[in-house]
Each structure stands twice: as C-alpha cells, then as structure tokens.
Amino acid sequence: MGTWTVIIRVGLPPRRLWFIMPHMIELIEQTRTLVGITLTPQQIALLGEYERELQDWNLRFSLTAIDESAQIRTKHFLDSFSSLLVMKNTPIRRLIDIGTGAGFPGIPLKIILPDTEILLVDSVHKKTDFCQYIIEHLELSGIEVIHDRVERLGRDNRFREKFDWGVARAVAQLSTLAEYLLPFVRIGGKMLAMKGDQGPFEAQKAGRAVGLLGGELEGVKRITLPGVTEDRFLITITKKATTPEKYPRRVGVPGKKPL
Length: 259
Hints:
By secondary structure, the protein is of the alpha/beta class. It has one domain: Vaccinia Virus protein VP39 (Rossmann fold, 3-Layer(aba) Sandwich). The chain has helices at about 20-35, 40-60, 70-80, 85, 105-110, 125-135, 150-155, 175-180, 200-205, 205-210, 255; strands at about 5, 20, 95-100, 115-120, 145, 165-170, 185-195, 215-225, 230-240. The strands form 2 sheets. It has a 7-stranded mixed beta sheet, with helices on both faces. It has a two-stranded antiparallel sheet with strand order 1-2. The termini are far apart. The model is unreliable at about 1-20 (pLDDT under 50).
C-alpha cells in the first residue's frame, strides 16, 4: 500500500483529518489527464467527503445505482469533470443542472469551479434533500437546489434565458431534453447533453426540435473514461435565438410527445 498523506479538512466539520489515500491520488492524476486540472487538497477533501456521504445515504434511500468507491470516482466525479472538455474557453458564470439526481454533474463542477453560480434541479424529493444536505455539509456557496419540474421552472422569468450553460446527464432523449434545457439558456449560451452510446443517433434525430427551440447543434464529442468500456458523448448545442414562449409545454408533454 502506498504512503498516506495527511491534510486538514478545510471547510468541513472538524470530526477528523482526511487522508489522501492512493485511490484519491489516482483521481488527481486522472483528472489532470482528462481535463488538464490539478485538484487541490481542499477539493480532494470535499470530493472524499461527498463520496462517503453518498454511500451512507445510498444505503438508506437508494439515490444511485453507482455506489462502489472506484465507480463513484470514475462514473460520477470524472464523468462530471469531462463536461469541461467542451466548456473550457467559454463563459461559465451561471450554470443550471437539470435532473441532477445526487448532484451530478453540478456539485463536482462547483467544487472545481468555485466562482460559478450553479442551480441544481430535480423532481424527486429524496434527491434534492440529499443535494441540499451536501451543499450545507461541504459549506459550498453560490449553489442552490430546487425541487420542481423543469417544465414549470422554465417558464419562470427568474430563470428563463438566464444561464451561460444548461447541462443534463442521462435525463431524456435529446429532442425532449432540448425542450427542457434551452428555455433556461441565454442567447449565445450553450446546452450540454451528456450521453451514452446512442448520443450521435439522438443528435441526428433532434435537429428539427433543436431549431424550433432556438438552438443549433455545435458538436458531438466522444470521450473515454479510465476503465469504462461504454462510449460517452458530449453533445453541445448553441442558443442562437430566443426560445418561443410556448416552450416548454406543460408538465409531462415533452416526454410523451417529443418535438
């Protein structure tokens, strides 16, 4: 076993010291290789505590099917960080993460982008309760969680066309997802759909819907995560025009009747 390095758990309740164990050193190296960012000791401490709390809550509330430590670091943390491959060199002042579940990708992004204002949205109470707990437990600022349906929230002037980036991971087919996300994105901003192996096919089918909603497909980027055989794709859509007021349609319609 490798040497353990002790660091002070900055900003966390002083219950114990946090140790950077060999597997967390591996996360540092993988993050640097994937997105060119070197995680700080404080960021590693926050991610380690996040992992521990996610596993603890998952025993009681079944928040995610991915709850083994190595998979959390790869399929949750690294996967969340991968969004920076298309976000880099763009404004990321305000970001909305819909269908966030247990906080992915929004909370890991907040940890490495502390100056970005982030809104998490989910319609499942136990998931928004967990996200709120983690935000408070890790003492994160500039991040908020809302329990609501995006069809309603997308019509709220506080949020409509107010974000530089709208992001979602494994939420819905792309044509439906575009109706959920693009109303939140400002003109000139971008939408990111984090998809599995059907990503390119969905992108081909969604062209009409994206255009109706004021968007334009920018790119489909294939990514590879360490130890993951499944294909992953980052689909980027640029907001070119205002989304018509009638979108999103009422709750449930976008999923049942995609554009």
